[in-house]
Amino acid sequence: MRISNTVKHIIIINIVFWVGTLSIGQFGDVFDNLFAMHFPMNDGFKPWQIITHMFMHASYVNMGNGPSIFFLHILFNMLGIWMFGSPLENIWGRNKFILFYISCGLGAMLLPLVIDYIKFYSLITPLVEKGLDLETLTSAMNMNRYNPEWVEIIGEVDWENIKNIFRTKSLGASGCLMGLLVAFGMMFPNSELMLLFLPIPIKAKYFIPLLLGYEIISGVAGGSSMFGFNVGHFAHVGGALTGFLIMWYWKKTQFNKNRWDL
Question: End-to-end distance of the chain based on CA atoms, in angstroms?
Fold first, then answer.
């Protein structure tokens, strides 16, 4: 399949970010701190991360003997964007494709962010009820320390979980890819797809609901992927759900793609 122009540019941008992550700083810390999506209460959060996180990918993984260069994350995402994005761009045109792609990336960011906020506030409720104000708490977490006088209060809450949420960094184009996959399945429901580790062809109209069900169950149950690295399952669900809603709206309103062609 010939790669479409916008898909080609998206892949190039992702590769540039990935090479920059490998080349600058130690184990990707500079690019991760600048461009990965941080929890908004964290001092590391910057407004541009809302967009840049979807062009970032994991560059290192700890294999037991120290960090090693990790290419599977970007490899699988770029292959998927090429395979499913190119036919969609050829049908939709550049501007409609860009709108869809970015929207799915934003949806992939928003759903886990809402879930993290709900978890965060539920966990800090005992602290707030004891009189510890939110500004003091977030300031202490940004400085990675807390007042010894809080020991009795902290003992009543899951402090480690609070810190993990506060320090969360999300990155990757997987949410965008999930949206593209849903759109492809809705436009070509009888196309046969298969997983690399399960080489059995399955029609898209069955494959995508199964994949989405797996992501939801995995997101609730937690755990890493089969390759041993952490996966944002709810980010995948958010991207897929956004893609579905956009496709449903376009189909309902008989969207005219020509209005996006310049």
Answer: 25
Among residues 100, 103, 84, the alpha carbon closest in space to that of 11 is found at 84
Distance CA 244, CA 53 (A): 22
Cα(56)–Cα(74) distance, integer angstroms: 8
Residue 246 tokens, joined: 């956009």
Q: What is the pLDDT of residues 82-126, one digit of tens each?
A: 999 999 999 999 999 999 999 999 999 999 999 999 988 888 887
Domain boundaries, the chain: 5-260
Task: List pLDDT tens digits, range 157-207.
Answer: 667 788 888 888 999 999 999 999 999 988 888 887 766 555 677 777 777
Label residue 223 left, alpha or beta by phi (over 0 means left) and psi (-120 to 50 means alpha).
left
Give strand ranges (E) for the chain: 37-38, 60-62, 67-69, 169-170, 192-195, 198-203
